[in-house]
Design goal:
Structural class: alpha/beta
Strand content: 5-15%
Distance between the termini: 24 Å
Shape: globular
Bound molecules: pyridoxal-5'-phosphate
Strand order of the largest sheet: 3-9-8-7-6-4-5
Number of helices: 11
CATH class of the largest domain: Alpha Beta
CATH architecture of the largest domain: 3-Layer(aba) Sandwich
Largest sheet: 7 strands, mixed
Order of helices and strands: EEHHHEHEHEHEHEHEEEEHEEHEEH
Radius of gyration: 24 Å
Number of strands: 15
């Protein structure tokens, strides 16, 4: 039985209906489907009222996912709610729009022959990672008919989707721990873990822990050298969930994409810095050879013979349409403007926080517009968990969390700046932070730690 962790506490079995529509005192079952119908306005009000307790997404600096889109995008999405992405025959223009996005991203990431762009939309980076990982595994299996247990090399800072990939598809996860001031994968440590059963190395462009970019070009160069020495050819997959939609626009000189011949595939979340509401990701291969054909299914029962490579079948078309809207509406310059501003807000905000005194920056927001800070060693009477909890008072969600092996001693706060987070909001956050620090400073000892705080970074 699947249990949501918060479902454990016992709740009354019936829900008291809002005192509107003359329904004072009326209750409805909470966990059972009601037997009879109710008017749509009443059902709407009940659900709407219950959702008032959800947080204000614009004050959430924990999430990388889009929380604001232009009203025109909202309208387009509403017009497309009924479209099923898989019905390519029924909705040929939606399919065409998906294909245009694949071509645009393929060009943005410098695929060698963008006319033969190979890739597809997904529900997010997690599904995209599964598909990218499966292609790596299948390519390795073809070369190693005699078997052995496949492994995938990555930093311990990878997002949980890679742990899922390894678990679901029975691939050994080879993790490079953090070390000293190194909070992500580096070339030397990646190569040390590679052998003939390595299906690939995952390099993360924009670590979820601190927003830093992993050195993709250095990792590729070290793997070139490894191949020259051992004859073993290890491809690289770039997890650009955030960064693949940031770096091309604001770090044009950084070489991390298909310009590096070793980069076989790249995933991104359209719903992070692609600026679309949750529900869309992308996976692009450098060319058709990088995607083994036997992973592609041909379905014809919807009326036409269509290639599909996806874990899902039916899924919403609206998000893909909204992605196209953004690409069209903003263009290269628009994305550069939006993300340039986010970086400006992030670096200025990290500077203001550093100036408050008790903090030390781990990153400053000059790669992803995301930064992590910790408390100075001398601060012992309160924790980052206390700060996170205090900020909740006015609705700010600033996550606090501890780092993984070998830096479990580091506890940090992380701020993700995205579209809709302005200099003005940043100033209000700093003011609140100052106010809370005055109180926390008088506290005799820490109240919250990793064990008694909810961890909501993702
Ligand atoms: C968010 C994230 C993921 C998972 O992406 P979803 O689109 O939420 O499935 C994977 N990798 C990294 C680096 C991420 O930041």
């Amino acid at each position: 039985m699947l249990k949501h962790p918060k479902a454990a506490r016992s709740v009354p079995q019936s829900l008291s209906v809002a005192p509107r529509f003359g329904m004072e005192g009326v209750t409805i079952p909470r966990h059972e489907m009601p037997v009879g119908e109710m008017p749509p306005d009443v059902a709407y009000q009940i659900v709407h009222d219950e959702l008032m307790l959800d947080g204000n997404s614009r004050l959430n600096t924990a999430t990388f996912v889009t929380t604001w889109m232009e009203p025109q995008a909202d309208r387009l999405m509403a017009e497309c709610f009924d479209k099923n992405m898989i019905d390519k025959d029924e909705y040929p223009q939606t399919a065409e729009i998906e294909s245009r996005c694949v071509h645009m991203l393929s060009r943005l990431w410098n695929a060698p022959d963008p006319r033969q762009a190979t890739g597809c939309s997904t529900t997010g980076s997690s599904e995209a990672a599964m598909l990218g990982g499966l292609a790596l595994k299948r390519r390795w299996q073809r070369k190693h008919a005699r078997g052995g247990r496949p492994n995938l090399v990555m930093g311990i800072n990878v997002q949980v989707c890679w742990e899922k990939f390894a678990n679901y598809w029975d691939v050994e996860m080879r993790l490079v721990p953090m070390d000293g001031e190194r909070f992500h994968l580096n070339a030397e440590e990646a190569v040390k873990l590679c052998d003939e059963n390595t299906i690939g190395v995952v390099a993360v462009l924009g670590s979820t822990f601190d927003g830093s970019y992993e050195p993709v070009a250095e990792i590729c160069a070290a793997l070139d050298e490894f191949q020259a020495r051992t004859g073993i050819d290890v491809p690289v997959h770039v997890d650009g969930a955030s960064g693949a939609f940031v770096a091309p626009f604001v770090d044009p000189d950084l070489v991390w994409d298909f310009q590096l011949p070793r980069v076989a595939s790249i995933n991104t979340s359209g719903h992070k810095y692609g600026l679309v509401y949750p529900g869309v990701g992308w996976i692009i291969w450098r060319d058709a050879q990088a995607l083994p054909e036997d992973l592609i299914f041909w379905v014809n029962y919807l009326g036409d013979d269509m290639p599909t490579f996806a874990l899902n079948f039916s899924r919403p078309g609206a998000q893909v349409v909204a992605q196209y809207y953004n690409l069209l509406r903003l263009g290269f310059d628009g994305y550069a403007r939006v993300h340039g501003y986010a970086r400006e807000v992030a670096t200025r905000l990290s500077g203001l926080i550093a100036d408050l005194g008790p903090f030390e920056l781990i990153t400053r927001g000059d790669e992803l517009p995301v930064f992590a800070v910790k408390l100075r060693d001398g601060v012992t009477n309160y924790t980052v968990f206390d700060i996170s909890r205090a900020l909740r008072e006015r609705g700010w969600q600033v996550p606090a969390y501890t780092f993984p092996k070998n830096r479990e001693d580091v506890a940090a706060l992380r701020v993700v700046v995205r579209r809709g987070f302005t200099h003005d909001l940043a100033d209000m956050l700093v003011e609140d932070l100052k106010r809370h620090l005055q109180h926390l400073d008088k506290q005799s000892g820490p109240v919250h730690d990793a064990a008694n705080s909810s961890s909501f970074h993702h």
